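Q: Got a minute? One more chain.
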Amino acid sequence: MAEDEIVLAGEADMLAFGHRLAALARIGDVIALEGGLGAGKTTLARGILEGLGLEEEAPSPSFAIVQPYDIPDVKLPVAHVDLYRLDGPEEAGELALDDYLTDSLLIVEWPDRMGEGAWPDALRFHIAMEPDGARRLTADVPDAWTERWSQI
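A: Always. Here it is, folded:
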């Protein structure tokens, strides 16, 4: 697994980066988004969804926990997941999130709620806020993404 850092100046850059990720995403991929409240996890997820063709505003799935999107609204099925409200991995088991991997892209906010070792092949981003408002993304790039990552 390789690690890479990217600094994005603002929301528009975060959305544009999401569009680039969308162009490379495949069914069965997990994109895991970590970072504090307000770091930009949902903004990046929205950028991915827009890049996949979603025309309406994607709501944060904080209360629904899982927000599915399907063709024709997006180019490939997506499950956008926000695990913030879960207390631990035992609650996440009831969501059967791995079932989505057979036919969808899985975008997961707060993946740490699943516990250590969840989705070891996920493309993971830790998003940190910089003093000037920029976002620093530290990417853990798994082998499955190595070739695609070079196209980012």
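A: The mean pLDDT is 91.
Q: Perfect, thanks.
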